[in-house]
Amino acid sequence: MKLTLDKPLQIRVQEAIIDMIRDESLLPGDQLPTESELYKRFGVGRSTVRESLANLVQQGVLLKMQGKGTFIRSVPVRVKNGLDQLFSVTENIKAVGAVPSTSRINVKTIPAGELSDKLSIGAKDPCVWVERVRRANDEIAAYCIDIIPKSIFSDNIDKIDYKGSLFDLLAQNGHLVSHSESTLRPTMLTKRDFPEMKDSVGLFLLLEEIFFDISGIPVCYSNDYYSSNVFDFKIIRKRQLG
Amino acid sequence: MKLTLDKPLQIRVQEAIIDMIRDESLLPGDQLPTESELYKRFGVGRSTVRESLANLVQQGVLLKMQGKGTFIRSVPVRVKNGLDQLFSVTENIKAVGAVPSTSRINVKTIPAGELSDKLSIGAKDPCVWVERVRRANDEIAAYCIDIIPKSIFSDNIDKIDYKGSLFDLLAQNGHLVSHSESTLRPTMLTKRDFPEMKDSVGLFLLLEEIFFDISGIPVCYSNDYYSSNVFDFKIIRKRQLG
DNA sequence: CAGTGGTCTAGACCACTAC
DNA sequence: TAGTGGTCTAGACCACTGT
Q1: Chain C nucleotides covered by protein, CB below 7 Å
Q2: CA-closest candidate to residue A76, choices A60, A88, A87
Q3: Residues B196-206: b if buried by 16+ CB within 10 A, e if exposed
Q4: The CATH number of domain A9-72 is 3.40.50.1460
Q5: CA distance A225 to A203
Q6: CB A213 within 8 A of CB A175
Q7: Which residue in chain A has the smallest CA separation from B70?
Q8: What's the whole-number mean pLDDT along residues B126-139?
Q9: What is the dihedral of CA A211, A215, A216, A220, to 10 degrees?
């Protein structure tokens, strides 16, 4: 493992700007020193300062207005695990500081059927259907059904271990997951749908997703039911202006 | 109205790259020419090409991997009314092809209280609390509670008409809504919470949102309960790669 | 090793905002 | 007019990937 001993300069400058905001107790709406002032102060090139500022604008910390200046937009806190970022169920569980595990796995082979359009395969093409109960520190976190075209797998599907991350599994078969098309729906599950639940009914956020690899091939159709007790989904929504 | 007759070079280069992808029929996963090749071909500086590429990466069109190259990343055409785009309830209702209306309005003045942090005002500062039932073709579409600092309004608040779009109202008072920080939560409402409902319980997607204007000032805290019968929220989720 | 993208500099000029 | 951020260049070196 090779390491860059020093972080990139633009990152260090970025941190220095954050420190400056804190040290000088600048508040939202306040103006930052000019780019010219900043690159002289830090003794770096202007592009470096501009890269740092661009990152902070991207993160929503700063706001630039041409001809006016750079301003504090909000307290320097970034939304972690925003919904627009694609994470696997495993990663989402780790993100809330819990240990992921899988407590029930059912696997069978089915034809694509109605999903053939969504997966861009024939209706009779075989798919692997995987049903799993995912837990965070042993608490029920999500109920997941994944349907993957058999052609995605290079290995013999009988030898596959489905306990871990779906994304890892797909990556091992040469399909790096790039993005998803997702539909959100609030859902109520009962003990009949989901016997492991403690209560007779539970509220879940259903993410109906189609995952695509970097070549644009649909690699999986999923219904992931995230427990509202465990997960809070956050997102920054930007308005189309002008 | 002043115009820049020529678009910035980096935008023209960006369009040229898109044209090149189309003309050479490059497919998702294919490698783009190197930066070195591109800036020579277009006769511009490397930074300009890099800015253009950065925009396209940001838009999800391209994917960069250090040491490897730049690749086409297939992303479907932007989802219409995707959740990452900020629309008002009014706009969301129009987007499903329905006529928006408001069937109940309650307004009162309250102190900010616990919301003072979120709205960046004092706990005793007065806010306007607005409760509304929004309908799509007379069907219940959403139940909305909006809390707006009184200081946002330049007009006398008693003369305000709350029937229409919240965003229009804020814009009329000089606060163009720029973005929101939103948290999603599946929610069940009962007739007690929401007497207008037909059934005794209903499933809603709660969007707890803080809206900010273009200056980064928080202008409204909202709890919008969107009926799952009327709305389907879609989003394209991109995975952090490389 | 060669080739890729990533970082960084110094300097120039342009476009927009305010006074 | 002065001062801001926006665009653009030419050139240097670094870090990562594959052979």
Answers
A1: 3-12, 15-18
A2: A60
A3: ebeeeebbbbb
A4: no
A5: 9
A6: yes
A7: A214
A8: 91
A9: -30
Give the per-residue pLDDT at A4.
47
Mutating which of B237, B238, B240 best tests the A interface, going by the most A Cβ atoms within 10 A? B237
Q: What's B8's DSSP letter?
A: P
Kindly determine whether the C-beta of residue A237 is less than 7 Å away from any atom of nucleic acid strand C: no
A90: closest CA among A187, A168, A182, A176?
A168
Query: pLDDT confidence of A79, banded at 50, 70, 90?
Result: low
Q: Is A157 or B57 the better-scoring residue by pLDDT?
A: B57
Considering only residues 11 to 30 of chain A, which have any Cβ-Cβ distance to chain B shorter than 8 Å? 28-29
Distance from CA of B214 to the nearest CA of A (A): 9
Q: Mean of the per-residue pLDDT values for chain A?
A: 84
Q: What CATH code would you report for B89-227? A: 3.40.1410.10
Higher-pLDDT residue of B26 and A159 is: B26
Do B240 and A85 touch, CB atoms closer than 8 A? yes
Residue nearest to nucleotide C16 (CA to C1'): A67
CB A176 within 8 A of CB A211: no
How many Å lie between the alpha carbon of B106 and the closest alpha carbon of chain A?
A: 27
Scan residues 45-84 of chain A and list those with Cβ within 7 Å of strand D: 46-47, 50, 64-70
Confidence of residue A81 (pLDDT cuts 50, 70, 90): low
Chain B residues in contact with A235 by the CB 8 A cut-off are: 83-84, 182, 184, 235
- Return the pLDDT at A35: 93
- Start-end of CATH 1.10.10.10 domains in chain A: 9-72
| Residues of chain B with C-beta less than 8 angstroms from the C-beta of A241 | 176, 178, 214
B189, B143 contact by CB (below 8 A): yes
Residue type present at position A158: D
What value does the CA radius of gyration of chain A take, rounded to a whole number of Å? 23
**CB–CB of B60/B73 below 8 Å?**
yes
Please give the residue of chain A at the shortest CA–CA distance from B74: A216
B73 at A interface, C-beta within 8 A: yes
Tell me, what's the pLDDT at B9? 86
Closest nucleotide C1' to the C-alpha of B10: D7
Residues of chain B with CATH 3.40.1410.10: 89-227
What was the pLDDT predicted at B97?
A: 86
